[in-house]
Amino acid sequence: NFLENVIDWGLSRDRYWGTPLPVWVCPDCGQIEVMGSKAELKEKCGIPYDKDIELHRPYLDNLTCKCPKCGGAMKRTPEVIDCWFDSGSMPFAQYHYPFENKNLFDETFPADFISEAVDQTRGWFYTLLVINTILFGKAPFKNCIVLGHVNDKNGIKMSKHKGNVVDPWSVLDKQGADAVRWYFYTSSAPWLPSRFYEEAVSEVQRKYIGTLWNTYAFFTLYAEIDKYDPSKYSLKDCKLTIMDKWILSKLNSLIKLVDGDLAKYEITESARALQDFADVLSNWYVRRGRERYWGSEMTDDKIAAYTTLYHVLVTLSKLTAPYTPFIAEMMYQNLVPNFFKDAPKSVHLCSFPVADESMIDDTLERGMDGVLDIVVLGRAARNAGNLKNRQPLAEMVVVTVRDFSLTPDEEKIVLDELNVKKLTVADDATKYISYMLKPQLKTLGPKYGKKLGQISAFLASCNAQEVVEAVKDGGVYNVPDLDVTLTQDDLQIFTQSAKGYVAAADKGITVALDTALTDELIDEGIERELVSKIQNMRKEAGFEVTDRIKVYYTASGRAAGVLKKGAFAADVLAQSIEEGEGEGEGFKKEQSINGEKVTLTVTKI
Questions:
Q1: What does the alpha-carbon distance between residue 9 and residue 359 come to, in Å, rounded to a whole number?
Q2: Which tops the pLDDT comparison, 495 or 604?
Q3: What element of type H or E holds 588?
Q4: Which residue, 102, 139, 171, 274, has fewest beta-carbon neighbours within 10 Å?
Q5: What is the DSSP code (8-state) at residue 36?
Q6: pLDDT tens-digit profile of 555-581?
Q7: To 5 degrees, how large is the angle CA 279–CA 283–CA 288?
Q8: 152 has which bridge partners?
Q9: In what residue span(s) does the Aminoacyl-tRNA synthetase class Ia domain sit (predicted)?
């Protein structure tokens, strides 16, 4: 109740330094004169108009004026004004308003925003409000960004005595200014205390700046090989794939979100949206489309891939410029001026991006969000069943209560991503996964101690899936007839997959994978393992991504049969796959393929 308890503000201070209190008092009759300007002061003290005066102590202390009441010599009271009054007067005092700069003051008052630490709530924020509300009838700022204090990694105030001070210059030298800025944008809401330490800065640097830079580096690597010139192509002329259309829709939705959040000074939300986009750009769009850049010919599909990713990266450099100005400038300089001579010389001279509504497809984004959720659950199910990602599976089942359905293209993406041959949509998740619920005593005990027995009985006989879906993502479930409200923290949730399946469920979606493996599926899994091993050997040997190779092997068992067929040669740019040690110099390595010992040698042609 700070405002209710506010007391009168005594403005005077018994100090030497400060703004002199402009009050003259007559020692004879007590008359008081408050000077409102230099002109008034000169007039009443008999100072020529063209003579300047020093408005600080001790000079003002020597000026006297004639008392209008008794004719005595009035002298300035010795006090100075509380410096907090100076701070609250800043909006108009900085322009010497109302004596000059009226238009400038009118244009800039109130300020778009101010920012200071939370302890200024009773300081600068308050004095600004008090003085300017009295003078102008309104607050001198439209927005106030309140900052929490910066503490050490344990949340303790930094102190030289405690030895827990983090040297900011050390962090700036190691991780860079962009990483430090990004940490404060995304670590917590601005008004909350933050825990600042090098490892935390490194983590956010990896999650966003590293991800963004790796995506940029991927593009430039292949663009230089193919001598891609963005000035020769435009998106409207490209034959875009569903993934291209999706990432462009996602990008324009991001532009709207970031622009809207920045207009509301919601910095953390907009920065996290940028971070999420960089993640799906790198780990979904680019990763799924890598093969589009591998061919030797400049096909229509490769042009669409290059042009889409180029457009996204240039737009991202502009979007991230206010947050991470240095990486944004480096990306922009390498992507734009060399190809577009009339473009602004710096990303910071560019207009902020404007969303192209024609590129936004809510249905496509909703469907791809569903695809991503299905893939995440499919991976979780694989992990639960100890099924390697490179091992193909015959079938998967998807059950969802959400408002989306997979198009044929989206279904193909799911099958390819999860390495499954067939996708079936079902409407009864209980055939593939079941839940068992038990009470979480440490939370339910204090709230419903006497009802624990009834709650346990309910959980043992209820529709567990209905309860689980209700409490997910901060929801609640109201137990009928018990006056009990359950949250996710109140429950121990156990899952059980049906026989022959491994399943996972979340966000209204259940994914079940058929675990049965045929000989054909096992051989295909071995083939994928071999491709991965050989690709890694190419990197270790220092081969270029375009180098053609020969592969030699010694193996037994199922792996030998797969190698003998050599059906995957094109996937590793191999001219041939032959049994033996190979001739001449080559990079040789012993590998384990599904428990079988295999020796591989790769030789550059």
A1: 57
A2: 604
A3: strand 587-593
A4: 102
A5: -
A6: 988 999 999 999 999 999 999 999 998
A7: 145
A8: none
A9: 1-188
- Say yes or no: 236 and 317 in one domain: yes
Residue 506 domain-assigned? no
The residue among 422 and 402 whose pLDDT is bigger is: 422
**Segment of 112-116, 313-317, 386-390 carrying the highest mean pLDDT:** 313-317
Indicate the burial class of 227 (C-beta count within 10 angstroms; 0-12, 13-18, 19 or more): exposed
What is the reported pLDDT for 1? 74
User: At which of 329, 360, 391 does a domain end?
Assistant: 360
CA distances, 95 to each of 89, 101, 104, 111, 116 (Å): 10, 6, 8, 13, 21
Give the whole-angstrom CA distance, residue 206 versus residue 222. 23
Is 249 inside any structural domain? yes
In whole angstroms, give the CA distance from residue 485 to residue 476.
Answer: 6
Q: Give the residue among 159, 286, 150, 270 at the shortest CA–CA distance from 213.
A: 286
Domain identity same for 354 and 239 = yes
| Element housing 564 (H / E) | helix 557-565
- DSSP state at residue 569: G
* Contact in structure between 471 and 487 (CB atoms under 8 Å): yes
Nearest to 261 by CA among 118, 145, 129: 145
**Whether residues 261 and 310 fall in one domain:** yes
Q: What is the mean pLDDT of the chain?
A: 90
User: How far is Cα 125 from Cα 478, in angstroms, rounded to an integer?
Assistant: 44
478 and 554 housed in the same domain: no
Residue 373 lies in a domain: yes
Return d(Cα 174, Cα 201) in angstroms, integer: 10
The Cα 268–Cα 274 span in angstroms is 10
Domain that holds residue 383: 363-429
- Whether 418 maps to a domain, the answer reads yes
The pLDDT of residue 361 is 94
pLDDT at 431 over 90: no
Q: What string of DSSP letters covers 231-290?
A: GG--GGGS---HHHHHHHHHHHHHHHHHHHHHHTT-HHHHHHHHHHHHHHIIIIIIHHHG
Tokens in use for 155?
């949340």
Q: For the chain, give percent helix, strand, coil, nearest 5.
A: 50, 20, 35
Q: Percentage of residues in the chain with pLDDT exceeding 70?
A: 100
pTM above 0.85?
no
- Rounded to whole angstroms, how far apart are CA atoms 93 and 81? 14
